[in-house]
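Notes, p. 3: input format for complexes.
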Amino acid sequence: VSVSDRLIKELAGVVGEAHVLASPEAMAPHLTDWRGRYTGRALCVVKPAETEQVARVAALCSAARTAMVPQGGNTGLCGGATPDRSGEAVVICMSRLNRIRALDLINDTVTVEAGCVLQRVREAADARERVFPLALAAQGSCEIGGNLSTNAGGVHVLRYGNMRELTLGLEVVLPDGRVWDGLRALRKDNSGYDLKQLFIGAEGTLGIITAAVLKLYPKPRATAVAWAAVPGPAAAVELLGRLRARFGERLTAFEIIARAALDLVLRHIPGARAPIAGEREWHLLIEVDDHWEDIDLAHAIEEALAAELEHGLVLDAVVARSLAQAQAMWNLRENISESQRVEGYSIKHDISVPVSRIPEFIERAGEALRREFDEVRIVCFGHIGDGNLHYNLSRPISLPDDAFIGQAAAANRVVHDLVARLGGSVSAEHGVGQLRRAELTQYKSPVEMDLMRSVKRALDPFDLMNPGKVL
Ligand SMILES: Cc1cc2nc3c(=O)[nH]c(=O)nc-3n(C[C@H](O)[C@H](O)[C@H](O)COP(=O)(O)OP(=O)(O)OC[C@H]3O[C@@H](n4cnc5c(N)ncnc54)[C@H](O)[C@@H]3O)c2cc1C
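Output follows (471 residues plus flavin-adenine dinucleotide):
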């Protein structure tokens, strides 16, 4: 029996034969990423159902010096959950580890396992008059372990922060199979290094997250959603400041959508309709909420936008009059990624700069790209309230896919050099995975890379956790 056959057998002994997939057909969904950009091979896919099983799987892989690739809902956008092409790694699919272990309404926390689908956690909170605020378009399939490992952001970061800010404790299986029980539900804990922060955003390169204690918040009683057209990005960030001054923490989402992004959705998503007539170039989706049930938020946001209309900061605006209208507005925003996928190949950037520098970024990046690439189609949208843009380039109609793919490195360079000059980040919320790995060394200092490598060596001396990702 070969070493790998023996390992497969031992893994089956831990999780049961039915939960070790080794045939190409059974493994296929686990070997390609959501965008279809990366395809790898694996020795097998294992599906543990308990922390203790994950620990034994890790110990076996570690003893056999076999690489491990943790995988959640496989919706990541950087190829982080896709194994390399060696066919030697074991993919550890976390989806069966999906219990909600505890919900503490006095402490306002929920303890969930890594394989819980985000939507289910949101629903469990909602059923108890709480909100778990992480919200993103992939919430029906992404899992808490993946959200933690990519430090996911989404549309409510403006008010609640990203996954890092929503997490109090973690349980992690280390590469050698030891379990770190850091499932503390404390809002104050200064007893030494905050180890959970190492694993959040580590994209499975330091250990396998098996459970987490997450923060809950009171459920808002009133919500209003508005769609506004503005003269440009400078007006958008100025409006952000004015609405913040007026609504404070009630401002929960502030998203920008360029005409080109809206047009893709109108073209590809059946039933999609523009909330505002005419050919306006820049659009905003704005959400406010409150805990007072009888407050007329729709009126409040309408009044605020009407005042800005007089000052010329807003060109046109409409406030949703029903839940269905609000949902229709959100659907436009949430279907941009899907519409881009249907439209064909795109070169994606997930960048952040200080909010104050967003207008400069959009102007200078647009100029530089149009100078270097004929007919470039810029699809710009995203969480402008957090200084985070999805600044994507769709394939020019006249250009074949491979010619366009050939331009990716040069286009990345233009965009990311500018981001660096403006003090920004080349990965705001999607992570590094395989996609941005080479660029890290380009844009981070040798000191920072050295610190990251030291952490990696300390936790994973044999480079078994998701090798070839991040570092
Ligand atoms: C339509 C769409 C919209 C999106 N919108 C947003 C958005 O608004 N904001 C945002 O931040 N992201 C967004 N994303 C990407 C986002 O990163 C993922 O949706 C999500 O956070 C990843 O979860 P997942 O369970 O699918 O992880 P996967 O794709 O399975 O894995 C992602 C990474 O985490 C690692 N990992 C997974 N589980 C574990 C674990 N238990 N322990 C250790 N490592 C693990 C993997 O190895 C991989 O490196 C979007 C994706 C799609 C498809």
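The mean pLDDT is 96.
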